Every structure is written in C-alpha cells, then in structure tokens.
Amino acid sequence: MKAVSSAIYDLIGVAGAASEPGPGVKACAGKDPATYFQVYHPWNFKPTSGADNDVAMNNLKEKLGTGGWVLKRSYRDNSANKNLNLVADNDSKKMSVWVVGYSGRATPSIGIEVTSGCYRVPEGQTVKHS
Known about the structure:
Elements: H1 2-12, E1 16-18, E2 24-26, E3 36-47, H2 52-63, E4 70-76, E5 84-90, E6 95-102, E7 109-116, E8 119-120
Antiparallel strand pairs: 1-3, 2-3, 3-7, 3-8, 4-5, 5-6, 6-7
C-alpha cells in the first residue's frame, strides 16, 4: 500500500508535502467483516505553491492512464468549488485511487485515498479494523 501511495506521489510532479497518516484496515462493503477486509491509505498533498495544485491535478489526470493505471472517471463534484475528482484502477496491483483537487480553497491541496481490493482473512486469523 505504501509503495502504491509513493508511486502516486511521484506522479504528482510538483514540489510539496504529503500528510503522515498511514494505511488502515476496513471491512469490505456487503461482506462479512470477520471474513473479508480491505487496506486503505488516505492522505493529503499540499503543493509548495498553491498555483501548482492545478498542475499536479493535470499530471495525475494524464499519468493515471499509464503504468497499469486506468482512469475510470474524471468529473467535477457538486461543491461550490466544483472540485476535480479522478478515479483510477490498477487491476494488476488490485488497487484503486480516488483523487480530489481542492484548488479553490484558501490553502489548495489534493486529497488522495488508495484502496485495495477485498481480501479473505486467512483461516484461524482475525483482522483488527481501524
């Protein structure tokens, strides 16, 4: 998970800083949480220059169609700022990413959440959901 998030960080292509929270574990929608789980990693990127937020989003929009990533959706949300949202999947890595560009905020940033596919808990083990 950290390697995938790091690779996405590299796709951003502008100077800035990422937030610190690490990956977590959650239940798979519609499945028994005692049997199935997903790993997720939400983080934020704040460009050194707020003007670079749109550049970073353009880089992500272009590059999330390469290296095994397939851009599934690109849309503006219903917020007052009409934030650009990108959703991409990487089937070989069994990962998805949802990116939101908060360019209209006083402090521009990018919200990123990487999520794995669903995995079955190994027999005799339990998973602590966070």
